[in-house]
Amino acid sequence: MTNPRLVNRLTDNPITATDSYKASHWLQYPPDVTNMYSYFESRGGRYHSTVFFGLQYFLHQYLAEPILATHVEEAAAFFEAHGEPFNREGWDYLVEKYDGKFPVRIRAVPEGTVVPVSNVLFDIELTTPDPKVFWVVSWLETMLVQVWYPTTVATLSYFCKQAILEALEKSADDPAGEIAFKLHDFGARGVSSQESARIGGAAHLVNFLGSDTVEGIRAANHYYGVEGGMAAFSIPAAEHSTITMWGRENEAKAYRNFVQKYLVEREVPAGLPKLAACVSDSYDIFNAVENLWCGELLDLVKHSGGKLVIRPDSGDPATVLVKILDIIDRKIGMKKNMKGFKVLPAYFGLIQGDGINDESIPQILRAVMAAGYSASCLGFGMGGGLLQLCNRDTQKFAFKCASALVNGEWRDVSKDPVTDTGKRSKKGHQALVRGLGMDRTLHTVQGPVANDLLQVVFENGEIKKTYTMDECRANAAKAGA
């Protein structure tokens, strides 16, 4: 029997983090080009604005480390075997002349900023004209465009937040105090990779403080940082195996054990609430609510000193949630808040974690409020709909060359396809400014201008400016102020 082949872990190479055809472009440009300028924008899409986020991760992870001769050697061998021409002389020159540091300047809008579509979000050009490496601006497109993903997740999360906040403002007594934990990230298992979990999970945290995507929280803590050291929080929760392993006949015992361990016996730091979420539809959610949570186990929950969050996990969310609330109201009664909506007692909560997306959230909230219940009664858990059901075309992201330095003069560059005017690109150097007076809208103008909101974040291989998660959150919150 032969042993499986031992394979070393594949390491990152900044040169190969691109598309194959980029290797052939250096021979295609006009003569006498010494610099090029490109920009990144959302050309439109599902939402009228985007929440810019995630460039900082890519700069730290992929651009801050210098290119080494070994990277060039590996890339040269790869592209030769791959069938693409490779500018070995250019890359060797970059290593020798610039110590392997990308000689580019990247400017970007502050992370977390809510920017209307069709506006520049970041731009890039060489810091000093150089005919031997100007093409590196385009080479970096593939990696930099991947900022579409965290920006799209942050955007989707942001608009879910607006929908929930609107419902809270209509039906809750303390919307601002509740919103931070109303949408919980359940998406780790539904994404394409661990890196997606890190990037997308961190992006959600621009808007909310609740997440079960550990890698996303770690990425936010590591690459952004947050006051207190922890970007998001979670609570103990059951899954179906921890309930069904007791057997259907012992469902009540499974729940009793759960409450005893996590609401009665568990100690939490002073000032923190004691919560635990128990999935309750392994068999019959309505029986579990009526005869167990509001029956046999009611006194245990009521006097536990904590809050039991009931989690249904199947069926039509709006229908199931309203029926559960009706059962609780009928069995133990609910009081009305100052806005006239019924609220759950302090020892009960509800979280819906199945079938949640940016369309179902407002539908569920409307149904619950129409039945007389406050949005305070609900929390949401969002998985694939948050981190996976999006792509670059969700917001039509594009990275385009807008100017080239030819014979010492900047030349406007753009595309204008007759078959699709929506793909028309911008010309010349761009700037992002805020309107004056009553018009505070962000819009793109020809640069350079003194009041440009784009700030240098990367220059000659060094990260020049970073944002904490607290700053990203504050920037996003400004849009709703």
How would you portray this structure in words?
With 481 residues, this protein is α+β, with helices and mostly antiparallel strands. It has 2 domains: 20-149 and 398-478, nicotinate phosphoribosyltransferase; 152-387, TIM Barrel (Alpha-Beta Barrel). Helix content is 35%, strand content 18%. The protein has 17 helices and 18 strands. The chain has helices spanning 55-63, 69-82, 88-97, 136-139, 141-145, 148-171, 175-178, 194-204, 214-224, 240-244, 251-264, 285-296, 298-302, 317-332, 360-370, 384-387, 469-478; strands at residues 33-42, 49-51, 104-108, 114-116, 120-126, 183-185, 275-279, 307-311, 335-336, 342-343, 348-352, 378-382, 397-406, 409-412, 430-434, 442-446, 455-459, 462-463. The chain has a 7-stranded antiparallel beta sheet. The chain has a 5-stranded parallel beta sheet with strand order 6-12-11-8-7. Helix 6 runs parallel beside helix 8 (194-204), helix 6 packs parallel to helix 15 (360-370) and helix 14 (317-332) packs parallel to helix 15 (360-370). It is elongated, with a radius of gyration of 26 Å. The model has no long low-confidence stretch (mean pLDDT 95).
